[in-house]
């Protein structure tokens, strides 16, 4: 029942918001949503407390037959792979609701959609049935499309449609692979077991895994399937970007590990060298593209493309250390990218622009956004993998776990890690250092020095979520065992599937 | 597009060299006439007067009582070593005397005026030898240092002399600014033109005040700046001070950095434009006085009227030091204006073509330098 509550709370919350009598004000709706999400986070923590870290398999399982004829069971379970992601979903949806302010257009639907996404994501992470996973995977698509297309920026219709087309294709490929698995094995059992694929010839396995990789590769996203992400981020509002980068992209990496690596261990081992090269290309392309951006949000979006490549590298290497690194990277990227988007959102709200050719000197103590700037420096340090922060632990684990398997791809990915420092230093240097100005820099130094800028100050309460995220990034960097303990047994077990010739079957 | 309104982003650049020269020759004030400007200038000068009082007392104390002290750890306490005062000092509940020293160093380094010429004279060298000999008899450290580094102690004495002279200069200016505030309260000063006139009269009245400095070593008095040097307030201290602190200044390191090797800083000190009149009020520490030390000090003594005026604008308390700096800059333009008016070679209404040409050249030379200062603060 514990796991069901993680679905029940947000879904019941969605219904409650939609049916709430009268016309509650946007601020009241926000408070109700926050209360529901606090409850959900509390339940996620309760699941973590009930979780036995020494046990490898699924725990707290709940299983009820739903539509046995088509193999759809209501089967939930949690392990060391999904638990951190459930926790981060709880935390970041709460952050998204907290940082949502001034929603004037249809606030009731906005908050209901936030809850719906959170519930669907929980469902996807907890599903032990392939069809159930697919249902939840598709369920979060429409609310997110609405969040971008109704509450997004000027080009929201274009971005939302692009998002819809790409992720619908992703869903179709994933469903195709799941159905293909059933078709080729002649089974109607969609339970999450690696046994089925063992009955398949290698050719069939490779096709199905290929479809899954492309499907989840769109969601992650991996180059060249990433095209939708920068546009969606640019047009999405800050809370939606936080959710998208922090949680929803993880559905792709989680799916890849859970349904790619775990279901098709033999085919995975065959494809792994290609995947490692794909990861390195993704990392380098994402990083180089980020360097070329002048929109802060697009830069952070491309950094996501690069940083998600580390997860693929770790998954391709498939060692206990690298897989632990993959989980770490999912969590730390979730926290760090959420923090980055949140801070870019504050800058945008205060200055009206995210253009790095326009913003300068925001670190100014008296009239700039000094605290926001300081947090941004913390966030970019974490993203660049500086020791003492979560990014360092995850990148170190990924590289340490992968270098023996794929030294070239790992070294190329390490170059990408260096490039992170390049583009984020460009961002910090351009937007936060120098003389405060919100106009294109002029060639005339005297005229430049006379610019007088009036920015509204950032109220302390506006930075509370960012401070909480920054603290989490530092705590995770200093005490990585908190997360390591949750996942280590599960990732070691996952790595051992392929270590045994022929897989578990 | 930026949400910041264009008129706030693009400061006015219309007050250029020609306009400065025109205002000076027409007898207009450099700072535009407005009720807001009057409040800003009078009240900020009042708080500056209070701060200068403390600076002046401390500089004179340092020059007289910490003279050639190799470890002047209590130099900011004016001889009052009561534990409560030491605690307040350590807790930084105090005036930033460092700023006064900073101005002293700027004056000393730029080294213009009669005092600097006197520092290079034989008479000064003789005084230094006597003082060092007397001091060395009581201080073994100095007795060792002087033969090893013969230029060191005379340089410290020059520095102490500049410190004392600046203390004397600020004594006069402090009283003048506090008198100005009283005159405005009495209704004797009602406009910016009155402010400039009041300051000009004060400077002219003090112009010929002698500047001396003597020290006591072992119960015996020695002159460092004797009356025979004939140093006076206006020419030998006030003008070098304006040159060093208002105009030249020194580049600050900060988030905007200067690359001297790339010639971003002129190799010619006379071309420096980092003084108070060029300073960027934003504390990016780009140039001139950063609104840190002095602004903190003035904030401690801010008159309530001006404080309220600030609270109603921009970020209220949040950027109060920037606003103090902007008001301070306006007031310093008034002081500069008064000094230029007071030293104009001929009356402005003279009909003699030669006198007019001389005035024109004088005003032109000032306009050359002020035209590139932060004149955007001058308009009403």
Describe the structure.
The complex is a heterodimer of chains A (505) and B (380). Chain A has 505 residues and is mainly alpha-helical. Chain A is globular and about 70 Å long. In chain A, 71% of the residues lie in helices and 3% in strands. The longest helix of chain A has 32 residues, at 320-351. In chain A, strands 1-2 form a two-stranded antiparallel ribbon. The two termini of chain B are 29 Å apart. In chain B, helix 3 crosses helix 14, helix 5 packs across helix 9 (152-186) and helix 10 (192-206) packs across helix 14. Chain B has helices spanning 6-9, 17-25, 35-65, 83-90, 97-110, 114-119, 122-138, 140-148, 152-186, 192-206, 233-248, 293-300, 304-311, 320-342, 353-370, and strands spanning 213-217, 220-225. In chain B, a hairpin with a 2-residue loop joins strand 1 (213-217) and strand 2 (220-225). Chain B is mainly alpha-helical and 380 residues long. Chain B has a two-stranded antiparallel sheet with strand order 1-2. Chain B is 58% helix and 3% strand. Chain B contains 15 helices and 2 strands. At the A-B interface, helix 17 of A face loops of B.
State the helicity of chain A in percent bands. over 70%
Question: What overall geometry of chain B do the principal axes of the alpha carbons give?
Answer: globular
The tally of beta strands of chain B, per DSSP, is 2
Average the pLDDT over all residues of chain A and give the rounded result: 90
Oligomer: heterodimer
Descriptors:
heterodimer, A: 505 residues, mainly alpha, two-stranded antiparallel sheet, 19 helices, 2 strands, 71% helix, 3% strand, globular, B: 380 residues, 15 helices, disordered N terminus
Question: How do you describe this structure in short?
Answer:
Chain A has 19 helices and 2 strands. By secondary structure, chain A is mainly alpha-helical. The C terminus of chain A is likely disordered.
């Amino acid at each position: 029942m514990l796991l069901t509550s993680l679905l029940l709370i947000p879904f019941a919350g969605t219904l409650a918001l939609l049916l709430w009598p009268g016309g509650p004000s946007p601020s009241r709706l926000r408070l109700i949503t926050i209360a529901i999400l606090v409850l959900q986070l509390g339940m996620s923590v309760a699941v973590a407390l009930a979780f036995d870290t020494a046990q490898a398999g699924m725990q707290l399982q709940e299983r009820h037959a739903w539509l046995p004829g088509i193999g759809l069971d209501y089967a939930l379970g949690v392990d060391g792979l999904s638990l951190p992601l459930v926790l981060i979903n709880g935390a970041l949806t709460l952050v998204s609701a907290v940082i949502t302010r001034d929603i004037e257009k249809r606030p009731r639907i906005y908050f209901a959609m936030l809850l719906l996404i959170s519930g669907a994501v929980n469902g996807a992470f907890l599903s032990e049935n392939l069809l159930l996973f697919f249902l939840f995977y598709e369920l979060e698509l429409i609310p997110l499309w609405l969040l971008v297309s109704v509450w997004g920026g000027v080009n929201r219709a274009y971005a939302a449609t692009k998002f819809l087309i790409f992720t619908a294709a992703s869903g179709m490929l994933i469903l195709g692979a799941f159905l293909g698995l059933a078709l080729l094995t002649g089974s109607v059992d969609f339970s999450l077991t690696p046994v089925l694929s063992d009955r398949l010839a290698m050719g069939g396995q490779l096709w199905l895994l290929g479809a899954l990789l492309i499907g989840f590769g769109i969601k992650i996203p991996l180059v060249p399937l990433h095209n939708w992400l920068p546009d969606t981020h640019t047009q999405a509002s800050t809370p939606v970007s936080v959710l998208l980068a922090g949680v929803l992209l993880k559905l792709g990496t989680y799916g890849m590990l859970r349904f790619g690596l775990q279901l098709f261990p033999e085919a995975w081992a065959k494809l792994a060298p290609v995947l490692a090269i794909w990861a390195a290309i993704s990392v380098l392309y994402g990083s180089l593209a980020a360097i070329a951006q002048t929109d802060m949000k697009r830069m952070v979006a491309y950094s996501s493309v690069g940083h998600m490549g580390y997860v693929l590298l770790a998954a391709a290497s498939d060692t206990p250390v690298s897989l632990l690194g993959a989980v770490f990277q999912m969590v730390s990227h979730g926290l760090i990218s959420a923090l980055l988007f949140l801070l870019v959102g504050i800058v945008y709200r205060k200055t009206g622009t995210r253009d790095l050719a326009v913003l300068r000197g925001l670190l100014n103590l008296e009239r700039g956004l000094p605290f926001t700037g300081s947090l941004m420096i913390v966030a970019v340090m974490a993203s660049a993998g500086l020791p003492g922060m979560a990014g360092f632990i995850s990148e170190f684990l990924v590289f340490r776990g992968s270098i023996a398997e794929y030294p070239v791809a790992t070294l190329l990915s390490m170059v990408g890690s260096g490039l992170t420092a390049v583009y984020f230093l460009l961002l910090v240097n351009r937007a936060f250092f120098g003389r405060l100005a919100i106009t294109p820099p002029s060639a005339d130094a005297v005229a430049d020095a006379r610019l007088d800028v009036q920015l509204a100050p950032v109220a302390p309460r506006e930075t509370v979520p960012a401070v909480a995220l920054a603290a989490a990034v530092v705590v995770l960097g200093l005490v990585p065992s908190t997360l390591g303990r949750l996942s280590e047994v599960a990732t070691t077990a996952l790595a051992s599937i392929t270590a045994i010739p022929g897989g578990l079957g | 597009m930026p949400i910041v309104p264009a008129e706030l982003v693009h400061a006015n650049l219309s007050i250029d060299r020609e306009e400065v020269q025109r205002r000076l020759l027409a007898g207009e004030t450099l700072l535009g006439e407005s009720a807001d400007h009057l409040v800003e200038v009078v009240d900020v000068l009042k708080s500056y007067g209070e701060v200068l009082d403390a600076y002046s007392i401390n500089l004179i104390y340092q020059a007289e009582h910490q003279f050639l002290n190799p470890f002047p750890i209590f130099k900011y306490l004016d001889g009052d070593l009561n534990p409560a005062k030491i605690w307040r000092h350590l807790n930084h509940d105090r005036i930033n005397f460092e700023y006064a020293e900073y101005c002293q160093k700027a004056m000393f380094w730029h080294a213009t005026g009669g005092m600097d010429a006197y520092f290079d004279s034989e008479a000064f060298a003789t005084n230094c030898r006597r003082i060092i000999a007397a001091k060395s008899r009581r201080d073994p450290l100095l007795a060792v240092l002087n033969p090893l580094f013969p230029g060191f102690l005379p340089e410290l004495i020059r520095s102490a002399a500049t410190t004392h002279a600046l203390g004397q200069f600020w004594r006069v200016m402090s009283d003048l600014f506090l008198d100005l505030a009283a005159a405005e309260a009495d209704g004797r000063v009602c406009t910016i033109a009155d402010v400039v006139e009041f300051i000009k009269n004060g400077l002219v009245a003090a112009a010929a005040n002698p500047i001396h400095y003597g020290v006591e070593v072992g119960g015996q008095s020695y002159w460092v700046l004797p009356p025979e040097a004939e140093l006076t307030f206006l020419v030998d201290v006030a003008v070098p001070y304006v040159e060093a602190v208002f105009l030249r200044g020194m580049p600050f390191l900060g988030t905007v950095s200067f690359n001297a090797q790339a010639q971003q800083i002129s190799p010619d000190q006379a071309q420096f434009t980092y003084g108070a009149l060029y300073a960027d009020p934003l504390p990016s520490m780009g140039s001139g006085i950063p609104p840190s030390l002095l602004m903190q000090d003035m904030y401690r003594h801010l008159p309530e009227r001006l404080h309220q005026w600030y609270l109603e604008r921009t970020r209220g308390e949040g950027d109060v030091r920037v606003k103090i700096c902007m008001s301070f800059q306006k007031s310093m333009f008034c002081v500069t204006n008064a000094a230029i008016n007071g030293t104009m070679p001929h009356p402005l209404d003279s009909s003699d073509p030669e006198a007019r040409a001389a005035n024109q050249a004088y005003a032109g030379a000032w306009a050359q330098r002020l035209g590139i200062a932060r004149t955007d603060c001058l308009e009403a």
